[in-house]
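FORM 7B - TANDEM STRUCTURE REPORT

SECTION 1: FIRST PROTEIN
SEQUENCE AND TOKENS:
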Amino acid sequence: MIEQVPAETLTRDLRPSQIRPYVLDSSVSNATKRKRHRHLKTFFKWTVKEGLSDENPMQEVPRPSKEKKKPAYFRPADIEKLIQVMRSHADEVCDAAGRSPDVKWLEEITRVAVGTGLRRGELINLRWRDVDLQERRIHVRHREDFSTKGNAERSIPLRGNALLTLQEMSDTRSPKRDEPVFKDQNGKAIRPDRVSSRFKTFVRKAGLDDRLHFHSLRHTTASWLTMDGVPMRVIQAILGHASIQTTEIYSHLAPETLDAAMDETFG
């Protein structure tokens, strides 16, 4: 910008056409463009307030749109590696009293999360009355102290490791209907921040992509369903997305599904 504008130029004389090349410089990253826009908009807002400019020229400089990043997700082998690291940690580490770390609940919530696509809050607030092992379904419901995102209740099929995990938990504990499904070894409900921080610790111990976090399990559910060719509307219903556009961020994951569809129809 210094090269594009003469040094003697006053702030009130700056025009959007002089600022735009600096903000939208193609040689810098999108994040840098957005930072430049933000800082200059704040600066010129101040100059207008102080009477140094008649108007804010940034009003006519478009703000670069935020890049849409593809959500990170786990592959099946990643999940198994993560679980194994959790188990090894429990076997190999003990506290001053000789007790193993309390990570069993983390393995359980991980299995159920990736097999259902439930949000962290939905998992933490899940009660055993919401789990129907006979019909193989989980019901996401409102309660006095909890509302689902978008106030939308839904019912999700239980299959695979998620079903086996919940069945084992039920058989081992014989829980009451109003008990939280996920509790620590002291019988206390799990705090949201504890779920996220403990999970991230083991992602790093396992040497997995550092972009992965607990919410990535939900992305993983959607990604696996997408790559198996499940229709977007079905995935939307499972995940409880209010808009199909939210679900469609996963559509790029399944080019082979599109190939198979065209081969079947026209091949």
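SECTION 2: SECOND PROTEIN
SEQUENCE AND TOKENS:
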Amino acid sequence: MSNKKILKRIMICIIIVISTLILCIIGLLIKQSRMDKKINNDFSNIYSNEKYKKVVAVYGIETIKQEVSCGYACIEMLSNWLGKDITEQILLEENNGKISTAMGNGFFKEMNKQFPEYETERYINLTNTELIGKIYDSLENGMPVPIEFAAIYQESDTQVWTLHFALVTALDIPNDSITVSNPYGYEETYTIKEFLNSTRYDSYENMEFYFKLGFLSRIFNKNTIYIIK
């Protein structure tokens, strides 16, 4: 076979592979667009819903600054609040120096492992109203809510967007306020709209392409929370 024919076949294979990848990405983009439209539903009715007139909150959670990872720090905050002694360093040692909570599924497994007296359920791609409803019910039942969301990490004079874990501790819908214990070391308050923009990652400015691919391929998910029962 001549070199020209070999080169031609190689080029054809490359074109087929590239075309297939492009079609796959287009398909994933269409699927994600439909999902985004579904989860980003109108949540304005929560302000007139009698169910949400009462402020719900849990008290006594000490916000810490993470030393290993946000997932481990959230578990430590919950541990302290529940009267247990699970630290980031203990979690790191139990996992042979690895961060088991780097992904949502790992955080879900670690929660159930560390708190076997409770059952933690993971919910992904909830609609805005479903997300708020589940957070409200959990806080009303006396349990904080671990979440995944977009957060800003202050590094010297630079602000860096990150995929992050934190705990929701209070929800005041009449006053349009939701409180989050952020393991970057502080408690912060969002409006409901700001909060939902962060749990959908719409607030994440100039998101890196590999993160976008992660959402397209469902490695990462939006409007994700963990309910402890």
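SECTION 3: OBSERVATIONS ON SECOND PROTEIN
The first strand starts at residue 56 and ends at 57.
Strands lie at 56-57, 120-123, 145-155, 158-172, 177-182, 186-190, 225-228.

SECTION 4: SIGNATURE
Preparer initials: ____
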